[in-house]
Amino acid sequence: MSVDTFKPPADAEPAAEAAPASPAATAAPSMQDVNELIEALRSMMMQAKNRHRSIEQTSEHGRVSVLFMLARLGPMRASALAKECMLDLSTVSRHLRTLEDEGHVVKSGDPDDKRASQVGLTERGHDFVQQFWQARVASVHTALADSAWSADEVRALAKLLGKFVRDTEGCI
Fold first, then answer.
1. For the whole model, what pTM was predicted?
2. Nearest-CA neighbor of 99 among 130, 80, 124, 81?
3. What range does the domain containing 77 cover?
């Protein structure tokens, strides 16, 4: 299984369209509706932030971020990686040394500048990212199953959250 399974492919088929909306469902949302949506999102972000804080307590946290960025964007210079991860270069360099020692990343010559090098994932690094992501998906799957979410509800939420992110980019 490829690392790309942790993000939807660009050519993925959209979820099936729901039945035609009733007139009440097509009305513009009220300020109260939007307020409730923002409150739900705030709660979700706080939950994610608390989880992030608990992970930050481990030495693995920064390295996982670096690995995920490399899996998503491919090989790059350490300076570009630092910018993408929003970390300083010295922090990323420290993570990269550890990840290289662990066999998760490898340095190679930069094809655009023979004087520079870039870093990319090894097969072991790809496997780590894949296993990490699969564990996260399994955890959320269990939580949704325990709460009796239907497949249609999960698909609808994914579709609507994607639309929300696209339509509100830059305003939140």
1. 0.69
2. 124
3. 32-167
